[in-house]
Amino acid sequence: MTQHQTGLIMGVANQRSLATGIAAQLHARGARMGFSHLPDDTGKMRQRVEKATEGLDPLFLEPCNVGNDGDIAAFFQQVKQHTPALDFFVHSIAFAPLEDIRCPTIEASRQGFLTALDISVYSFIATAKHAASLMPNGGSILTLSYFGGEKVVAGYNLMGVAKAALEAAVRYLAYDLGPKNIRVNAISAGPVKTLAASAVGDFTEMMGMYETISPLQKNVSLEEIGHTASFLLSSGASGITGEVLHVDAGYHVMGSPGRGSLAK
């Protein structure tokens, strides 16, 4: 990460968010960042993000409902008021109604499907378009995915369908934005205890499985995900675009339980 790069991060929910871990590593490398928060009448959402980004010297913190085009446009107008240009943009937003995640995928409702794809995928396309308009000299865009978008992960259900679409969007946006020297990539992160993870099946069992089966025999940390994000957003990754980079201790390469089959 080049010193004094300026970026935008959307999707910090609390101190354990993947976006928070990424922001911490970017800040350690000298980056300046602005953040979004979900709008609400009580101000609790803003307070959560303020607490999570405390010590990161945010350039700004503005509300944005990514389910509304007008809200996205107004948010990026605010971004322009704070900084004339962006070097990087991180999108870490996903959502589906709880009842549509916890049921078998075949039982998901039409509205649940539309909501999941709208917030988890279209919001990436819509915000990337605005962010790219603030990258006249090129830049880097990053989103967050999960292995459940490639293979069936029990309990991930409808969100797996959304992540598959998100990863396809990464490739197509990489193509669209390549002529502008804007790179688009994703990190497919192993399980980390976040607010979003609480909606996915038996999460404790999943973490135990990763620790047992992955080649490195561990779960990844927020810091490790942040380090990889810093690399992908830096000039050191100038030749990488359209990539989904796994940060999962190698779990995705396994075709059998491996050493896990030897566990007593």
Features:
Rossmann fold; 39% helix; alpha/beta
Structural class: alpha/beta
Distance between the termini: 44 Å
Specify the helix fraction band. 25-40%
Indicate the CATH architecture: 3-Layer(aba) Sandwich
Q: Strand order of the main beta sheet, please? A: 3-2-1-4-5-6-7
Determine the CATH superfamily: NAD(P)-binding Rossmann-like Domain
Report low-confidence residues grouped into runs of 5 or more.
Answer: none
Please, how many domains? 1
Strand content: 5-15%
Description:
The protein is of the alpha/beta class and 264 residues long. The protein has one domain: Rossmann fold (3-Layer(aba) Sandwich), CATH 3.40.50. The chain is 39% helix and 14% strand. The protein has helices at residues 18-28, 44-52, 69-82, 98-102, 110-132, 158-177, 203-213, 222-232, and strands at 6-10, 32-37, 61-63, 88-91, 139-145, 182-189, 244-247. Helix 6 (158-177) links the parallel strand 5 (139-145) and strand 6 (182-189). Helix 1 (18-28) packs across helix 8 (222-232) and helix 3 runs parallel beside helix 5 (110-132). It starts with 5 loop residues before the first strand and ends in a 17-residue tail after the last strand.
